């Protein structure tokens, strides 16, 4: 067992929370209400996680995503699979895209440019806070800005077809700091910097280099300034097997405040869908996210009872 996995095994139990995409039609069953105190507790915890700008989770082998920040995935409507299952593309590549939102890693909008497609999704528990029975999902790499992974080798962390040598994982081309990454991003004559960029390796095997590698991705996003704020970062997580709704560590569903009505409608669908396909039943709250409007602004998380699905 490597250092990171051992750390998770030892510390995980001490970090327990006190607390679009429409898949196949949900089984129809009345949904029990969600206690407001539970939803409020989740929203408060997400706010705390977002505000927590720690460098690591106590050791060099414990990256900050284990215990701080908000790891979330934007979802969109697709009748062929459930929101919690990997998409057909993710099944093929072995990687699933998430973003990491934190006070020092702000962005003004979610993935995709169509507001109908970037207005809702779900949030994962930080690894050290997930319930013991939930899946451990490995974080593979971090791009400070969207990595355009569909043009990259599976699982999306490696070289792009346009720049097969220069866009490999950062550590493999001698890039270990945010300053080096920025210099690489600013290489003269590069027509597609998103494909020229490298990803920071954050796999478990990084051990004592893992925490700094992830933190450098946050610093690089900061150093991009307004350009970094204009676009979400890109984390690739290892794909999990489909058909495990009870095991996926979903902390909350979300929608973006001010987005088209379809965002909340899809979040409600996903909330009900998860409830109806889990046994025992799981009710996950819907959280309203209001994104920061400036680089130094503050994103907020709010539980609203009227946003929840009510039978």
Structural overview:
The structure is a single chain. The protein has a 9-stranded mixed beta sheet. The chain has helices spanning 3-11, 36-51, 88-93, 178-185, 193-196, 210-223, 226-229, 261-277, and strands at residues 70-74, 95-101, 120-124, 139-143, 200-201, 234-238, 250-256, 286-290, 300-303. It is globular. Helix 8 links the parallel strand 7 (250-256) and strand 8 (286-290). The chain is built from 8 helices and 9 strands. The chain has one domain. Helix 4 (178-185) crosses helix 6. Helix content is 25%, strand content 14%. It is of the alpha+beta class. Keywords: Signal. Residues 1-25 form the signal peptide. This is Halovibrin HvnC.
Features of the shown structure:
single chain, 311 residues, alpha+beta, 9-stranded mixed β-sheet, 9 strands
Secondary structure: elements and pairs:
Blueprint (H helix, E strand, L loop, with lengths): L2 H9 L24 H16 L18 E5 L13 H6 L1 E7 L18 E5 L14 E5 L34 H8 L7 H4 L3 E2 L8 H14 L2 H4 L4 E5 L11 E7 L4 H17 L8 E5 L9 E4 L8
Parallel strand pairs: 7-8
Antiparallel strand pairs: 1-2, 1-3, 2-6, 3-7, 4-5, 4-6, 8-9
The count of β-strands is 9
- Write down the domain tally: 1
Q: Which strand order do you get reading across the main beta sheet?
A: 5-4-6-2-1-3-7-8-9
Model regions low in confidence, pLDDT < 50 over at least 5 residues: 9-23
Q: How many DSSP helices?
A: 8
Dominant shape: globular
> What helical percentage do the residues reach?
25-40%
| Structural class by helix and strand composition | alpha+beta
The overall pLDDT average reads 90
Instruction: Give the distance, in angstroms, between the N- and C-terminal Cα atoms.
Output: 46 Å
H/E series: HHEHEEEHHEHHEEHEE
Largest sheet: 9 strands, mixed
Please report which band the strand proportion falls in: under 5%, 5-15%, 15-25%, 25-35%, 35-45% or over 45%. 5-15%
Question: What is the rounded Rg?
Answer: 19 Å
């Amino acid at each position: 067992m490597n250092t990171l996995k051992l750390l998770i095994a030892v510390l995980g139990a001490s970090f327990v929370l006190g607390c679009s995409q429409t898949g196949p039609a949900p089984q129809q069953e009345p949904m029990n209400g969600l206690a407001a105190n539970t939803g409020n507790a989740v929203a408060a915890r997400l706010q705390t996680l977002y505000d927590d700008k720690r460098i690591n989770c106590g050791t060099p082998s414990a990256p900050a995503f284990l215990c701080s920040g908000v790891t979330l995935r934007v979802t969109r409507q697709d009748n062929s699979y459930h929101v919690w299952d990997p998409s057909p593309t993710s099944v093929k590549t072995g990687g699933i895209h998430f973003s990491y939102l934190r006070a020092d890693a702000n962005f003004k909008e979610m993935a995709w440019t169509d507001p109908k497609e970037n207005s809702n999704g779900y949030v994962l528990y930080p690894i050290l806070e997930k319930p013991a029975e939930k899946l451990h999902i490995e974080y593979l790499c971090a791009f400070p800005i969207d990595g355009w992974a569909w043009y990259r080798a599976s699982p999306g962390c490696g070289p792009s077809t346009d720049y097969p040598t220069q866009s490999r994982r950062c550590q493999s081309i001698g890039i270990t700091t945010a300053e080096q990454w920025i210099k690489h991003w600013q290489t003269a004559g590069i027509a597609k910097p998103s494909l020229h960029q490298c990803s920071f390796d954050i796999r478990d095997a990084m051990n004592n280099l893992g925490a700094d590698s992830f933190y450098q991705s946050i610093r690089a996003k900061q150093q991009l300034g307004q350009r970094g704020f204009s676009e979400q970062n890109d984390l690739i997580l290892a794909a999990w097997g489909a058909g495990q709704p009870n095991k996926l560590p979903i902390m909350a569903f979300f929608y973006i405040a001010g987005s088209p009505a379809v965002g909340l409608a899809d979040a409600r669908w996903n909330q009900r869908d998860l409830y109806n396909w889990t046994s025992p039943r799981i009710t996950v709250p819907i959280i309203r996210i209001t994104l920061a409007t400036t680089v130094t602004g503050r994103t907020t998380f709010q539980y609203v009872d009227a946003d929840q699905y009510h039978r």
